[in-house]
């Protein structure tokens, strides 16, 4: 296990990109709060894996679009491991694949709740606790976006694409706002990554269908995104803030 690296909260870390990031972060010495919303077994699997490697992690169930859950998540992480120093706003939902004319208002609202409002709520709590202006020790944050923010994802996920575009503007604006307060804020823009999210959107086969259209002609692994996130969090990225890095096989 590497040198101790501080307390990291990763939202939506029970599965997919968040889970891969939690495992890599633990191997790099972070104590990790593994947030998730419903799948207890998956989150427990991540925490058990980390413990088996000699790392430190807790599972924190909570819906990050809810203010009270966000505050509790930070309190639990801090009580377990000490002051929070890093945050990955990874939790996201795609809504259902379909055209805008078919879109259900509840799906639209949920998409913005989890992809945008949750990131605001978590970032707000992070800045309150971590900004040097507020007496904190500083830290780093990474937001997890999608190349859909650029493509618009017509005929499929325009609602999701628009939410991720909002997240990227949030990333840039917040980074400038806290740039002199010891906090760096960056973003990864993922391409097609092999996770459950495609099935959740209603079409598991889109992963294979679109993969060959990417310049690298394959989908990415969650671990390949985790590497980029961990770099943003590390001191190696000390002069990088407000950036959005595509991790998208050439897109
Ligand atoms: P995933 O495999 O579907 O996993 C999503 C995770 O988020 C799960 O752990 C889930 O918890 C959690 N979650 C969902 N809603 C939540 C909420 N309200 N509060 C707390 N946790 C919540 O997703 P993924 O593919 O790894 O996606 C991770 C991020 O990458 C998302 O922001 C997504 O938009 C983005 N992204 C993914 C791709 C891709 O191709 N996979 C491409 C571009 C961007 P449970 O396990 O409890 O259900």
Number of strands: 7
CATH topology: Rossmann fold
Sheet with most strands: 7 strands, parallel
**Share of helix, binned:** 40-55%
Placed side by side, the strands forming the largest sheet appear as 3-2-1-4-5-6-7
**Poorly predicted tracts of residues:** none
Mean pLDDT: 97
Characterization of the model:
- There is one protein chain.
- The chain is an alpha/beta fold and 251 residues long.
- Helix content is 45%, strand content 17%.
- The protein contains 9 helices and 7 strands.
- The protein has a 7-stranded parallel sheet, with helices on both faces.
- Helix 2 (40-52) links the parallel strand 2 and strand 3 (56-61).
- Helix 1 (16-27) packs parallel to helix 2 (40-52).
- It is globular.
- The model has no long low-confidence stretch (mean pLDDT 97).
- Residues 11-12, 14-18, 35-39, 42, 63-65, 90-93, 114, 144, 146, 190, 192-193, 195-197, 200 line the site of NADP nicotinamide-adenine-dinucleotide phosphate.
- NADP nicotinamide-adenine-dinucleotide phosphate (NAP) binds at residues 11-12, 14-18, 35-39, 42, 63-65, 90-93, 114, 144, 146, 190, 192-193, 195-197, 200.
Q: Mind sketching the topology for me?
A:
Blueprint: E1 7-10, H1 16-27, E2 31-36, H2 40-52, E3 56-61, H3 67-81, E4 84-89, H4 105-130, E5 139-146, H5 148-151, H6 158-177, E6 183-190, H7 197-201, H8 206-211, H9 222-233, E7 244-247
Parallel strand pairs: 1-2, 1-4, 2-3, 4-5, 5-6, 6-7
Helix pairs in contact: 1-2, 1-9, 3-4, 4-6
């Amino acid at each position: 296990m590497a040198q101790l690296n501080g307390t990291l909260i990763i939202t939506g870390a029970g599965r997919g990109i968040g889970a891969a990031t939690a495992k890599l972060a633990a191997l790099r010495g972070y104590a990790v709060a593994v947030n998730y919303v419903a799948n207890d077994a998956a989150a427990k699997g991540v925490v058990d894996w980390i413990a088996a490697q000699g790392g430190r992690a807790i599972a924190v169930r909570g819906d990050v679009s809810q203010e009270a859950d966000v505050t509790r998540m930070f309190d639990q992480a801090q009580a377990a491991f000490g002051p929070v120093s890093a945050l990955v706003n990874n939790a996201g939902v795609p809504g259902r694949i379909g055209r805008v004319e078919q879109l259900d208002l509840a799906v639209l609202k949920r998409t913005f709740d989890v992809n945008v409002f949750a990131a605001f709520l978590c970032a707000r709590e992070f800045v309150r606790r971590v900004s040097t202006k507020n007496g904190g020790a500083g830290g780093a944050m990474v937001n997890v976006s999608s190349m859909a923010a650029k493509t618009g994802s017509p005929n499929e996920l325009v609602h999701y694409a628009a939410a991720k575009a909002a997240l990227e503007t949030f990333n840039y604006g917040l980074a400038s706002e806290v740039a002199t307060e010891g906090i760096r804020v960056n973003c990864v823009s993922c391409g097609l990554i092999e996770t459950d999210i495609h099935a959740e959107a209603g079409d598991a086969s889109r992963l294979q269908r679109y993969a060959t259209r990417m310049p690298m002609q394959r989908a990415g692994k969650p671990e390949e995104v985790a590497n980029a996130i961990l770099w943003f969090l590390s001191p190696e990225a000390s002069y990088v803030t407000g950036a959005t890095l595509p991790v998208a096989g050439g897109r």
